[in-house]
Amino acid sequence: MYLTSERCLDDGVVERSFTLGEIPGILWTPVSASASAPVPLILLGHPPLGLGAMYPRLAGRARQAVADGFAAATIELPGSGDRPRRPAAEQARAELRRVMEAGEPVGDPLIDALVLPLVDKAAPEWRAALDALLSLPGIGGPVGYSGGVISLGVRLAAVEPRIVAAALFAGSFVPRAVVEEARRVTIPLHVLLQWDDEGNDRQAALDLFDAFGSKEKSLHANMGGHAGVPRFAGQDAARFFARHLK
Predict the structure, then answer these.
(1) What is the model's pLDDT at position 200?
(2) Which among 224, 177, 173 is positioned nearest to 196, based on CA atoms?
(3) Residue 195 pLDDT exceeds 90
(4) Distance CA 128, CA 177 (A)
(5) How far is CA 164 from the centre of its chain?
(6) pLDDT at 222 over 90
């Protein structure tokens, strides 16, 4: 990991950009974090739209996490931002646009092509980033995962023992293989569902929630579309992480 920039924001947040090989990322920490007073870490998941496009939303979430006493970090997803394009993924996204514009159902083969290669490549990268982040002074466990892509969150929750709690946003397509994988997830879960999400199959989201093997899992459904998440939903997630990471 190489730190490429550092700045102190106006609310006691230190923001550091880094690279891990070819992968860009951002780390936010409280100014008070130190080797003698390390803070828990929340990994911020996001859709594959590029860190530049997602920065305002990610920074807002990170500031809230820091205000709650955590560090927060994220990395660029494969094929996004300035990372090399993935032709198969570009083709699958183009087919998705065509299908949705035509009002056709989004079938399992297309969902698999959209999601599974991304998860297979991204999950090891997030685990490598976690190795590097936890080696830094001031960053300690436990670790949480927050956000989407929900299939990536499921994979990490299933295979990464350092992640002890996850707040997942049911706002993306989920392959059937991921639903089966969810049965191996046993950590506490806080799942957010927008009931009228125009790009999400509500029943698929409910099936995924039902499949999770966690003894503690809660589903928070709110009326409205994908971008209509109420402000208090973030406060609910903050309380969830306060219970499990502190």
Answers:
(1) 78
(2) 224
(3) no
(4) 24
(5) 14
(6) no
